[in-house]
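Reopening: structure tokens for the heme C complex, inputs below.
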Amino acid sequence: MNRASEMPRLLALALLVAGTSVLAQGKADLGKREYDSNCASCHGVDGKGGGAYVDFLKRTPTDLTILAKRNGGVFPISRVYEVIDGAGVGHGSRDMPVWGQDYRVKAGEYYVDVPYDSEAFVRTRILTLSEYLSRLQAK
Ligand code: HEC
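Re-run output (same inputs, fresh job):
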């Protein structure tokens, strides 16, 4: 076999390797990404409540790593979901932003005029966040 005939094979191998690394990036931790960009500013990257905005808030952001500990060892998924969604919480009564509303607006901006299910968009984000928080729990 001469060198020239090796080239297409090497090219195919290079493409395969490049393709695999793109797929690996697709496995990104969505909950962590969502948390780092929306929540870490107040709750801290480690979830313990020491984010950069703390000095500007009236109330201290909750330590999100002890939610299970404070609930008899069980991660309080429904309450966490409701707090993040913010539905039914009165305006101005808390420093924690109403993320459900924020994500509903984002869904509209994301899909523009394609038909979409805004509730599914919101639910997916809140669930990935809740799942990420469940992984932050102190043992
Ligand atoms: C602007 C600051 C700020 C940001 C950003 C923020 N929070 Fe909060 N969060 C708070 C504060 C302050 C509290 C304490 C309760 C209150 O004041 O409403 C809180 C409370 C909570 C609670 C309630 C814990 C309990 O005691 O049950 C959860 C869960 C929570 N936040 C999750 C999140 C998640 C997830 C995000 C990102 C999507 C987020 N927070 C973004 C400030 C923030």
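The pocket of heme C is lined by residues 38-39, 41-43, 53, 57, 59, 61-62, 64, 79-80, 83-84, 94-97, 99, 129 (CB under 6 Å). The chain has a mean pLDDT of 84. Marking as resolved unless the reporter disagrees.
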